[in-house]
Amino acid sequence: MQSLNLGILAHVDAGKTSLTERLLFAAGVIDKIGRVDDGSTQTDSLALERQRGITIKAAVVSFAIGDLVVNLIDTPGHPDFIAEVERTLGVLDGAVLVVSAVEGVQAQTRILMRTLRRLHLPAVIFVNKIDRSGASPDRVLAQIAARLTPAVTAMGAVTDPGTRSAAFRPFGPSDAAHLAGLADVLTRRDDDLLAAYVEDQQALPYTRLRAELAAQTGRALAYPAYFGSAVTGSGVDALMAGLAEFLPAAAGDAAAPAAGTVFKVERELSGEKVAYVRMFAGTLRAREPVPYGNGADAKITALSVLSGSSPVQSTAVTAGQIARVCGLPEVQIGDTIGPAAVAARQHLFAPPTLETLVVPATAADRPALHAALTQLAEQDPLINLRQDDIRRELQVSLYGEVQKEVIQATLAAEFGLQVEFQESTTICIERVLASGAAVERMDGGGNPFRATVGLRIEPGAAGAGLAFRLAVELGSMPLAFIKAVEETARETLRQGLYGWEVIDCVVTLTHTGFVPPPPYGWSKWSSSAGDFRNLTPLVLMSALRQAGTVVCEPVSGFRLEVPADCLPPVLTILGRLRAALQAPDVEGDSCVVAGEIPSGQLDSLQQHLPGLTRGEGTLESQFSRYQPVRGTSPARPRTDHNPLDRHEYLLRVQRGLGSR
Ligand SMILES: Nc1nc2c(ncn2[C@@H]2O[C@H](COP(=O)(O)OP(=O)(O)OP(=O)(O)O)[C@@H](O)[C@H]2O)c(=O)[nH]1
Ligand SMILES: [Mg+2]
Asked: From the CA of 17, how far away is ligand 1's center (Å)?
């Protein structure tokens, strides 16, 4: 039995959830079709999704096409929930990219297609809503070829578009235009096929072209396009057949050591955590221990696979399948499961660029709010919950205002907590300007810890993250102490001289010293990892102060398409929002303006756009880099992660030690 792990991706409202429902119906899993507008679909199952009619969390359902088991992941289309899409992309064998036959290719569609291509993830395109008034399948196909990929090939034609009776007619071997189009796309990537085609077009049998299309689709070189309607069901059977024919089933050796990735974490009503794991290799077995996350072992207490949207108990789940795993208490999204770790995936989309303070209605709710946000952060690590230990304020990272409303509603509905959010602010970072070094010696005055630590900090390459290096012998000190220095250095640099995270730097351990335990047993006079944890922030911040940092804000590349006569006011707004522009490109009565803009200004640009462009302007943007902030500095007050004041820091550590 083979599996296909399939994601449905698209811009908001393209019809992903409705199509999922249709596929479940066509596969015989449900006998009544739910509707997004009635809040009755299988995958929009959260109360908030049903109320709002949008998808917020990725949801998995399973159905069969013949003997192929399809695990389908319905994803949200709203850009505020792009993190859900990112988590999903890492576990897919293929995707259906949905485009609306009315709205056509949107900014989000282009971002998703770019990502699919970057990952070499095979995809089939489905042009949905052919029944809706205004549907124009030909125009949208041309848009796809021009703006998404020239390697698209239509698998059929639409009759009566824009009406309830719109229907999809699959092409066959006697459709000459189809054969020519297919050959045109396929011969671009296959010289043998091209030679055969030039020699004698008639000699290439249709079955050969279909097989070649499957091969090239499987290598993400070609994209078959289907047309249909999730509401009337037209074209959905053809799409299903196309999924089985053109997308490659999961591969993986069930006998190899287990390797899986957690892409979703949920809590049952009982509070127990359930991890959704895509198995890439090996086998998971119920009631057997398995290493996960940072290497801790836990016993799997219950294991299931999905049938439709319901879990079915299973004793073993093998490579290629998706498992629901209970019994991993500390599990988080992105964890690897099993001894054969799968390489960590780099981020595909921009990180959140906004953050906001979450304020409980009554101060007494603060501990409960912390606990609730910690639970939400398990399901969505990018909200990156932080507590300022001096002011006790709680802060979360965000993609946008809709995500804020969703967090607020979730806290009210699931945890009974009323909260207010302060206005969102841009998340900046700090870059190290030069090299700085500091040493605190055990025998030096004023060092109350049984540890010597010397550290140097220098700028690193953009995008390289934090590198920790040793300029001392690895054996000069117990590994646990070196690890304690490294971990604490990483923790300390979450807030630099101005309170922002310090990124892209190299930290080198230059001096070490410790008091070894006596030959037999342990002495309270010997060094502990705690001594190194307490001393490291002091040394590192001193080195950092010497090096200096600059606060940088996120900047996004953007592409704005507006009617040419609306250009002057749009340029005025762009200037006010500090955008750097390339020369506008006028094409007929439409004009494209591209450039860079501080990411924090995007929301404002988006809000002005409809008024300035009669609602016709479209904005596409993507995080590109960080640049030094000009003008007023958004520096933050320091916190206890930022021990600039030696005396104050030591007092606090003493107090901390005293309470242990
Ligand atoms: N006429 C018509 N309406 C459709 C079709 N597919 C979806 N819709 C409607 O479009 C709206 C959005 O559909 P959804 O299925 O929620 O879209 P989605 O892509 O899942 O939306 P998000 O998950 O929020 O991004 C709903 O009102 C659907 O009823 C279709 O084929 N034809
Ligand atoms: Mg949806």
From this structure: 7
Helix (H) or strand (E) holding 285, with range, is strand 283-285
Counting Cα atoms < 13 Å in the Cβ hemisphere of 377 gives 18
For the CA of 76, the closest atom of ligand 1 is: 23
- Could you give the 3-state DSSP secondary structure of residue 353? coil
| Residue labelled with tokens 């949008």 | 54
For residue range 501-554, list pLDDT tens digits in order. Answer: 899 999 999 999 999 988 777 677 899 999 999 999 999 999 999 999 998 999
Strand ranges, E, within 133-236: 152-154, 156-159, 167-170, 223-227
Decide: 161 in ligand 1 pocket, CB within 6 A.
no
For residue 651 the two structure tokens come to: 């007092």
The residue whose CA has the least distance to atom 11 of ligand 1 is: 13
Total length of the chain: 660
Cα separation values, 291 from 294, 342, 516, Å: 8, 13, 32
Residue nearest to atom 6 of ligand 1 (CA): 15
**Relative to the alpha carbon of 231, which ligand is closest?**
1
Question: What secondary structure, in 3-state letters, does 173-184 show?
Answer: CCCHHHHHHHHH
Encode pLDDT of 326-351 as tens digits: 999 888 888 889 886 555 556 677 77
Ligand 1 near 36 CB (within 6 A) = yes
Q: What is the DSSP string of 358-423?
A: EEESSGGGHHHHHHHHHHHHHH-GGG--EE-TTT--EEEEES-HHHHHHHHHHHHHHH---EEEPP
Report the C-alpha gap between 45 and 48 in whole angstroms: 8
CA distance 25 to 45: 17
